[in-house]
Every structure is written in C-alpha cells, then in structure tokens.
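Interim report, section 4.2 (structural modelling).
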Amino acid sequence: MVLTLVIFVPLAGALLLLCLPAKAARWVGVGTSLLTLALAVVLAAQFNWHSGGAQFRVSVPWIPAIGANFTLAVDGLALPLVLLTTLLTCVALLYSWPHAERPRAYFALFLLMETGLNGYFSTVDLLLFYLFFEVALVPMYFIIGVWGHAERRQEAAMKFFLYTRVGSLAMLLAILALYLAVQPHTFYLPAIIAAHPFPGAGLVPSLVLLGFFLGFAIKLPIVPLHSWLPDAHTEAPTAGSIMLAGALLKMGGYGFLRLALPTVPGAFHYWALPLAVLAVVSAIYGAAVAMAQSDLKRLVAFTSVNHMGYVLLGVTVAAYAANPADRTAGAVGAMYQMVAHGLVTGGLFLAVGILADRTGTREIARLGGIWAALPLYGGIFTLLVFASLGLPALAQFAAEVQIVLGAVGAFPGIAAAMLVAIFVTTAMFLWVLQRVLYGAPPPAFAHLPRLRAYEIAAMVPLVVLIVLLGIIPGPLTTAIGGALHAPLLGPLIVH
Amino acid sequence: MSDTALFWLIPVLPLSAFVVLACGLLRFGTLAAGLAIAALAGAFALALAALVAVASGARAVVTLPWLSTGGRTLDLALALDPLSGVVAALVAGVGLVVFCYAARYMAGDPGYGRFFTEMSLFIGAMLALVLAADLITLFLAWEVVGMCSYLLIGFWHQRPGVPAAATRAFATTRLADLVLLFAVVSLTGLVGTSRISAVLAAATSGRIAGGVLPLLGVLIVIGAAGKSAQIPFQGWLPDAMAGPTPVSALLHSATMVAAGVFLLARLFPLLVVAPGALLLAAWLGALTALLGATVALAQTDLKRLLAYSTLSQIGLMFVGIGSGSVLAGIGLLIAQAIYKSALFLAAGAVDHAVDGTAFDRMGGLARRMPVTAVVFALAAAALAGLPVTLALPAKDAVLAAAQGQPALFILATVASLFTALYSARAFGEVFLGRTSDPARQAHEAPRGLLGPLLVLAVALVVVLLANAALLGQPLARLLLAMTPESPAVTALALGCAVGGVVLGLAARVAWPDRIIWPVVRPSAPVLQEEFGFRPLYLGLARAFIWATGVLGAVDRQVFDAFAGAAAHGVLVLVRLAGRFDLRGIDAAFTGLGRGIADGGQALRRLQTGMIGNELLAVALWGLGIVVLALIALAVR
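Predicted structure of the assembly:
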C-alpha cells in the first residue's frame, strides 16, 4: 500500500496542482514531494534490509488479454533508487521555490516525472516498466524545452527526446522478444527469468541484448550515444539537471542490472569484454572532454559520462567474471555508484545553479575567487568536487573501490584503465577548483549574497548523505548484496 | 585498564577535533587553535604511553567493519606494534610542536580557524595511516593526508602561483595514489581480506601466485615514491613551499612525505619476496638523493633549499629500506622529522624577521637572532650528519646497508657529502657573512615562536644523549632489526659530514668567490630546472590539456553535429507537418484545467505562450500513454 502511494501520491499532487490557483502551486508542489519522501522513508523503515529480496508486492490484473499485470515490488536494488528519486525531487523543488515561472505546470511536471521514476524502479512487469520509462521521459522534455535557459533549448529538448525515444523503442522490441519467447506469454519478470528463454549467445539473444543496450546505454549515457546529454544539461533549468543527472540516468544502470543481466546472461557474458572496453573508453572520454569545456554546467554534465562508465564496467564485471565474489563486487559497486553519483552530481548541479544565480555566468573564464567571496559555498563545492573525484571517506570512493575490486579479478587491464579515468577526473576537477574557487575575487564578486536558507536546506541532506555513505558503506552494501542473493539475480551473481 | 586500551584514540582525538571545528566552531579562531592543540596533546600523551607499553612487549588491535563485498572484508583497523608505536609518537610529538608554533605564527590570519581545522584532519589522518592494520584503512588515511596537503598548500590561494602549486602537488600524488590503489585492491582480491597481517602472511608463505607479486611490489613502491616525492614524482614538493611555513614543517618531516617511507617499512616483508621492488626503491631513492642534494646546492631561497634537502633525505631513506634495512630508513625518518621541522620553524622565524625567504634578504643574522641561530646550527649539523645527533648513526646505517651495491653506495655517499655542503652553506648564508639591508632591521623571534624551536632543539639533544648512552639500541630493539657494524663506513660518513661542513663554511666565510660557487653558479639554470624534469613535466601537462581540447573539439564537431542535425531535422519536419495551431504546454495544462470546467471548448481560445507545435505533439502523445494506461486499468 505504501509502495503504491509512493508512486501515485506525486501524480495526485500533479493533478491537484492543475485544479488549484497558481498561488498555491509552490506549497502543493514542495508539500507533495515532502510527503512522498516521508512515505518512502516509511517504506525503508518497514523494509527488511537483511533479506534484501523483493518486498511489498502488489499485483492487480491489468490487461489480462496479453498477460500484463500491474505488479509492484521493491528489493535492495530498487529501494535505494526510490529513496534517491524522492529525495532529489524534494531538493530540486525546494531549490525551485523562488525560481519557478508558471509554477503550476512546472511543479506538476516534476511530480509526474517522480511518478514515472518511482514506478520504473518498483515494477517487475515489463510492460509497466516500459510505460513508466516513457512517463519519466516526457516531463523532462518539457522542462528542458519550456523552462530551459537559452535559445537552443528546443533543439536540446528534441535531442534528448529523440535519443531517449530511439532507446526506449529498442528496449520495447527487446521486451516484446522476451514476451514472445516465453510460453505462456507474460510480461512478469520473475516468470521470464525462471523460463530462461535465451540461454546462449546466438543471434537472437545478442539482438535482445542490443535492444536493451541501446535503451540503457543511451540513458546512462555511454559514448558514442551521449550527445543528447551535454546539451540537455546546458539548456535545462537547475532543478531539471538535478533530476536528469541524479535520477534519470540511473534508469539506464538499473535497467542493465534488472533486465538485461538476468534475461540474456549468455549473450551478456559473451559481449561483456567489448562492453567493458566501451565503458572505460567512455569514462576516460567523459573526463577528458569535460576538461575541455568552458561552461561549468556542461563540464559537470560530462563528468556523468565519466561516472556512468564505471557503472557499466561494474555491470559487465557482474556478467563476465568467473569468481562469484568478483561478480558481486561489480554489481554492488555499480549500484552503489548510482546512488552516490545521484547525490554528488545532484549536489554539483545545485551548486552550479546557486553560483550562476549570483554571478550571472557559468563561464569558467569569467569566474574566479569564489572561495574568498563565499566561504561556506566554497567549502561545500570543494567537498562535492572531492566526492566526485572519488576521494576516500566520501560516497563515490566506496563504490569505485568495489568496481575496481571486481574488475581486477575479471579483467585487470581494464581495471587499470578505470584508474586512469579516475586520474583524468582528478586533474580535470583540480583545474576547475583552481580556476573557479581559488584566487582573489574580481571586484564584481566582492559582495555576492550569502547562501539563503532554502539553498542550504536543499544542500544539507545531500552533503550529509555523501559523507555518511562514504564513512559507513556497510548497510547499503549489505542491502544491495541481499538483493543479489535473492531469487531474481541470485543464480547469476552469487552461484 | 592497560596502557594500550585507549591507543585507538591517538588518531581519533585530532579527527574529533576536526569534526567539531568543521561543524562551525572554526569561526572562533583562538578556541579552534586551543581545541586542536589540546586534542593533539592528548594524542601525544596516549602515544607516549603506548610507546612505553610497546617497549615492554604489549600489542593491540582494534577493528571496526567498514565494507564487506562478495565475501571479502575491508575493515577500519588500527594496530599497535613497534613500528606504528614509534612513528605515531614521532608524528604526534612533532605535530604538537608545530601546532604550538603555528598558534603564534598564524596569528592575525583571517583563515586562522580554518587552518587549525585542516591541520587537525591532516595530523589525525597521518596518525591513522601510521597505526593502520588494514590496507584499506591505510589507503583511506593516505588519501585524506594527500587531500589535506592540497588544501594546506593552497591555504593562501589568493596569492599568485599558489593555486597552481596546490594543483600540481595533488595531481602528482594522486597519480601515484591510484597506482597504489590498484595494488591494494589486487592484494585484497587475491587474499580475500585487506588485513595487512593476512596479506603479508599470504605473500611470504607463497600463497600469492609468483608472477603477480613482483608487479604488485613495484606498484607499491611507485605509490610510496609519489607520496614521498621521489623520482619521477619529485616536482611537487619544492612547489609545496607555497603553503604557510608550519605546513611545510609538518609536510616535510613527520607527515605526508614520511608516509611513503613508512609504507615501505610496513609492507617490507612483502617487498622482500618481490625483490625487484626493493631494488627499484633503492635506485629511485639514490637518484633522488643525488638530484635533491645537487639542486639544493644551487638554491638562492632558504625554503626551496630545505625542500630539495627533504627530497634528498627521503631518497636516502629509500636507499636504506631498498637495501634491506628497515632500521636505517626509519632511523633516518625519525632523525629527519626532528631536525627538518626545526629547520623549517627556524626558517619561519627568519621569514618573520626579514619578511622573505630569499638569501639576499639575509646574512649576518647570528648576532641579531642568536637563539634561532643556535637552534638552526644544531639542526643543520644534524642534517649534515655531524656526530652530535641521531642522524649520524642513521646515515651510517643507510650507507652500511647500501654497501653491497657499489653504484648505490657511491650515489648515496656523494649525496651525503653534498648534504653537508649545502647545510653549512645554508647556515652561512643566513647567519654569517655580510648583513643585507633587510636583515639590518631584524630582531629575535617572539617567544611564541622560540618556545617550540627550543623544544625541538632539546629533542635533538635528548635523542643525542639517549643515542650516546644506548648506542642506538632502543630503536634497534623496538624495530626488532639490526644493522651491521662497519667502522669503515662510519668513518666515511663522518668524513663526508665534517669535510662538507668545513668546505661549505669556508666557501661562505673565507673565500666566497673561489670555491664551490664558481662551479655551481654556471650550472644553476640547469639545476633550477631539475636537470630538465621541470620543463618536461610542464610540457606533459600542456600536452594533456591540449589533447583534452582536441577531444572536446571532436566531440563538438562529430557527435554534437550529428545529434544536432537529427534534432534539427525533426524540428523542421514537425513544423512542416503541424498545420494545426496550438499554443504550447502551459496553454495545454491551463486548458486541461479549464477544459474540465468549461466542457473542452476553452483550449482553442487560449493565447498564452507560443511554444510550438512539436511540444504539443509530444504532450498529447505522452498524456495519451498515461490516459490509456489508466483507462486500461479502470476497465479491466
């Protein structure tokens, strides 16, 4: 029941927004997101973290003619991402409080997207999976296209839409192939996994994998399918970027683990090595191209290409490694990286937005001396950057060390290449700190307004969680590991 | 309660001080300094108690689970043993002196509280590194130490040149850190745990397959070389002078650069069974020792001279451990920590007095700053290897260890000779000879600075006495290792020291223009560029940035252009196809709301917003999916 509420309360809030006057929009929007977060926390409190398997199962017959059920359930893979989504929605909407023009539609779209994301992460019915994928996609198109920054926002929105559409259609074809391959036809994921329709690595399984790969690699994104991302971020409003990088990209990594890995394990194993190479190439490429950016927001956008490369690497380790310990480390690391990256990069986009609000620019060349101008902001920004470059005792290190740990066992050369990627990220971010934070502030920045309460309120939960997940990685790792032991993925990962 | 029950508090006290300060207390400067010093003093007291307990045979381990993934455990674990006990006491002691000095030295700085916050994390992480019983604990602390040195080197980041120095230092050390991470993770994967004792046991018992171990040993040495600024990573350390002097005093003595040497000592049993690794360490050390000592000769700035001196001294430690003697390396580490921090603190006092660290602002300061001069002289004598301190036996041990390999031995001996030479020269340039104009105004450092200096001077003397009384035995007993006695080597080390000092002083006082300088001066440009290392690295960094620029251009020209053309094409198509005229999403949503009320005719009349047909097309499609799904659910 709570799970159903977590998914549909935002939708109800969105509908409510449309019926109320614009003056109430902010209260209703932020209130709904807070209520949803509270519900998600209740869900997490009731969740049995030690078992980690699918819980809170809800199943209602939906379209019986084609065997589609409205089935929801969350496990240790899904729940962290649901929590991440609900938290980031709160953060994004809180930050939007004074910024949102045409607030009713704005808040409604964010809430609709939250419904799509929460639904996507908590369904085990493939048709519903596809449906929620699209529901999460469409609002982002409008957020970029309508509330975006510059003249090119429509083109950016269309790029985003086209790429993701191509991906979702490829995914739909793969889903239909699974549906047709199982007798009786069903969209119920556990039944499909149990039937094991595509054991080998022949043409058809490889094509199904290709379908999933297009869907999820575009979403992550992986080079060379990434070109929608920098533009989408450059043009999107700050809150949109927080959701896009923090939550929407995770649909790709989650899809790989939830769908692709268990349904076509043979093909995934067969193609894992080239995919792992692609993953590290993507990681290095993302960091290097980030270094070349002159727009701070675009730079942060490219770091997502870098960090999501590690996620794909972790997934390929889970598909490839001979040693179950390495497979577990890869899969857990990939999941942990998604949660950590959501917090860190969400925080970074928030920080860039806060800075741009004050200085009126995101051009690195025109920034400088920010630490001296805004001491508290400088401290937070430095912490986020350190987290993003994988410094220990902060969230992403715990993820990256697990991915490397798995990768060393499976393909040591690629693990070494991942460390090269981390180094390029380090150099890139240090150069950013040097140019943006350090130095004496120009006269124009001497009296920048200090951080406001709503900005600090949006930032604090992210910072606290980044530090906590870095220092105490045990609980979340255990929960994810529990999901990997459960019937859905267990046979693949653990045994 | 035994003396070891609370040893885990040694790093935890300064780290707690950091947490408290970082949560806002750093705004109150004096309070911040007091808290930081009190926490470190507590840690030092505990470390001394632990050291006494260790000397009588006590051992202790504390473990906190950190991460368990796929059946492999990575823990937060601290262990008290002879090596960690000795070095922890050293780190806390030197740190405490430097903190007290900084309380006066940094007075009036707007970042006073932030300074002590970052310093507390720095020293706490170093103590954790030293006491670590688990590779992942060690690596966590290792990285935090690097991060703090980055923040502290860049402390005065509004000054020109400082941000670049901080970036260079962190980028260089992190490159080596990641090499070390690969080794740490590989060992964890192979052994199933990152517990150091288990890893060492697996390595020495041959449970790790033969081919891998030499490679991992080499990676560990590379990681250590990065932290300790050995070739090819040496460039960052002289630039790190950009930080405040107390930072330099800590960074060059017991923290940061000492970490690499400590790592070699800690993982020595593994390196012994990976012989190529030890040889590599010895050679990197010997080359760096010679490079540092040679470049130090040509420096015209006191702090830069001391920085190159550190390179050289750490190099000798690498030679010692690389030649198989942990005692030699750690012995020199302890001695260096004391005399190098004393030299830096004295340099800070001089800096305060003459407002600069270039030699041409100094000269003849002995009469104006007698106490500083005496402390500097004592520390410089120790650096030179004169038989007044622990340093001679330590250097003696390094040379003795290197005896077996003539090339290494010769390099180390020449480095020792040069060390004596530049030590004497530094003292001469600052305190003897003609007084420069800025030095005329100088007067003795304030008490707040002199106190810590004197403590270090006393420490040097005490160590000397203890050493004389027990002939280096306490250290040897603590480290459970012995160095071969060799009168010939001792004589050679002593000869180098005395000869170098006499020559250096003579060159400064008696014949300033006749010996040494005519040789050094013409080669100064080459030496200042570290024999071409500097331009090489600068070129590499530029090439790296250029390459990323090229990639960025490719990304724009190829991938972006393709995506842009596709998006543009669709936009054009949609505009062509969209004959019907509707006004966009806000209109659509407003319309939806009003439509519910007005029976659906309102949409067409609304004129707010001109977004475009394509938006509407997508909107209808998206809403359609939702509506269809809801209908399907409703009528099932």
